[in-house]
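F.,

This is the one I mentioned.
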């Protein structure tokens, strides 16, 4: 691997940018394929680029026969990330549970009395309004977002921003009545019914959860389920009608 290639891979990791390193096994020729750009000798091969994009979507490295040549696609994708809006009691259980499952967890809440490292040890805490924090951090296809504050002033801007992103999961705490009112408010700022359908609300799997810990279990279970189904659908072979 070339030094400049290694440096580019390290930069992509820091910026949570998915990339595939394509290497032709016969002569070690390289190419870096991102979702929106390419670089290197193999970056100009449309067939390799298409295969690399698919490999990034399913998060799987593989060796393929492309144009009569063996090409190894080494996929580097950011780890799954969970962004929790609202430093509330449910979040105090949800954050460490998600960390145990190797999610990169961030808690966002502008309320300084709630958003403290003492309440969330070992977790990144951002004391900003969620929509502003999202703009800085970026919500990619490996990101799940959950709003837990029950306060429209905090949750609505977060949901509006998340729904305009590539986040694979968006959940919002609240009853069906609360969710219906939330839909009306977001419609006023341009969120269509199709966009709003991405929101899991009431959030979590229907397991009869009552306590903050049980609700956290139901939320994390739903995130895992949605992520697994998405990756399964992407990995499934496409059937072409005769």
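My design for it:
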């Amino acid at each position: 691997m070339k030094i400049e290639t290694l440096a580019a891979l390290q930069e992509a990791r820091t910026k949570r940018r998915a990339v595939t390193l394509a290497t032709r096994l016969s002569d070690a020729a390289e190419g870096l394929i991102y979702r929106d750009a390419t670089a290197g000798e193999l970056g100009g091969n449309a067939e390799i680029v298409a295969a690399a994009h698919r490999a990034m979507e399913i998060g799987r490295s593989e060796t393929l026969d492309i144009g009569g040549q063996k090409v190894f696609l080494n996929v580097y994708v950011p780890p799954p990330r969970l962004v929790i809006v609202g430093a509330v009691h449910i979040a105090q259980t949800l954050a460490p549970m998600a960390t145990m499952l190797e999610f990169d967890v961030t808690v966002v809440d502008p309320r300084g009395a709630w958003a403290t490292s003492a309440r969330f040890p070992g977790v990144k805490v951002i004391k900003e309004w969620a929509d502003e924090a999202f703009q800085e951090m970026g919500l990619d296809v490996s990101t799940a977002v959950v709003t837990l504050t029950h306060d429209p002033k905090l949750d609505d801007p977060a949901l509006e921003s998340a729904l305009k992103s590539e986040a694979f999961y968006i959940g919002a705490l609240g009853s069906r009545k609360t969710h219906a009112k939330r839909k009306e408010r977001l419609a006023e700022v341009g969120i269509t019914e199709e966009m709003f359908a991405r929101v899991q609300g009431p959030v979590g799997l229907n397991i009869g959860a009552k306590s903050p810990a049980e609700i956290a279990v139901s939320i994390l279970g739903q995130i895992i389920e949605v992520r697994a189904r998405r990756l399964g659908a992407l990995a499934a072979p496409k059937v072409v009608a005769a």
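The chain has a mean pLDDT of 91.

Talk soon.
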